[in-house]
Amino acid sequence: MLQKFGSCINRHKLNSHSGTVMEVIDEIRAPRKPEGKYKAMAICFILGLGSLVSWNSMLTIGDYYYKLFPKYHPARVLTLVYEPFAIGTMIILAYYESRINTRMRNLTGFILFFVSTFFVLVLDLATSGKGGVGPYIGICFLAACFGIADAQVEGGMVGDLYLMCPEFIQSYLAGLAASGALISVLRMLTKVAFEKSHDGLRKGAILFLAISTFIEFVCIFLYAICFAKLPIVKYYRSKAALEGSKTVSADLAAAGIQTKTNDQGGYHEQQERLSNKQLFNENLDYAVDIFLIYVATLSIFPGFLYENTGTHQLGTWYPVVLIAMYNVMDLMARYIPLVQWLKLESRKGLLTATLARFLLVPAFYFTAKYGDQGWMILLTSFLGLTNGYLTVCVLTVAPRGYKGPEQNALGNLLVLCLLSGIFTGAVLDWLWIIGKGTF
């Protein structure tokens, strides 16, 4: 009874200092160790899976698209179409993040992923798997929709999970990598199953798209119904609301937590939060890290692996194996930082490691020119390993020391840098084919 009375007094003091008339029913007295942590981690993993599974499906069936559109460089063009829409949307969302309903943002993104993936499947069925300019333009349009959905979901989820414990963001990042690993493994299985059958590539692609569509539907259900109602999630979102976060109100309402706001229709922050510019300046090295990580990766993956590695004993399996090894090692590496003594937290160390990855560019060039397929597989595995490890290290260390609204803003800014790095890398990837007469 005394604890409850003291909690009420503290809440009254907190509200009187801020001038905010706000009440979070019951959740202020949430247990110190709320239940549902492992369920939340599992859901975060699945939501991460759904955040990229559709796009990774399109990339992984690249051999099918190269058969349909051999002169259009699909692996490179689709990435180049995808990224401007992702970045443009992310710029707008990062600027207005403090006023955006995160729940509606994430649900909109997952629904757009679901619809777009379904229509990629419909387009292939409607055209009977035939090439041509018309279907290619349609696929490019749907790739642009994937970019918009990615900005909605990835920035929204990272910002939202930054309000919670580090294990949630790590699970989400692992799910992002798992999408590529899952699709790559499935691609190999379908290649074995359909390789000798008529139109085997197309059958595998249709199966991919059907699985991706189902996963996106599951993500809509999990985020809309299950995630918000977990006790630990309600606890962290209630805490963020008290720290001045306006983005969690709809999720709290969905969890049955009623809130009252002031006459202006929003929460007053109890302390002055740092502006986006101040946050960016304070975390400039992390922003540079995440940008350069993906510049280096996307300047090689996937375009170089599909078009510039030559012909080897594996034949048509060669690019499939390379993509699979990258994705599997990327996933495995995202669990390495869970071992505390293996996690790189030094800001100088992260920047040094990030810059050192650019040595992979000449390494890939000389391996493609002089090395055999074994060295290329090893090098591609190392590319995935370093990408996954450094991504988790940077994104889990960065939000420390900030309160709710600042963490959400920082998450959006870092995702913007990540997407900018992907776009820059995708543009640089075209340099590999200059002078080869392949345009």
TrEMBL record:
The keyword Transmembrane helix applies. This is Equilibrative nucleotide transporter 3-like. GO terms for cellular component: plasma membrane. The chain crosses the membrane at residues 38-55, 75-95, 107-127, 133-151, 172-194, 206-228, 286-305, 317-337, 349-368, 374-398, 410-433. Keywords: Membrane, Transmembrane, Transmembrane helix, Transport. It comes from the Eukaryota. Belongs to the SLC29A/ENT transporter (TC 2.A.57) family. It is a multi-pass membrane protein. It is found in: Membrane. It comes from Clitoria ternatea (Butterfly pea). Pfam families: Nucleoside_tran. Signal peptide: none annotated.
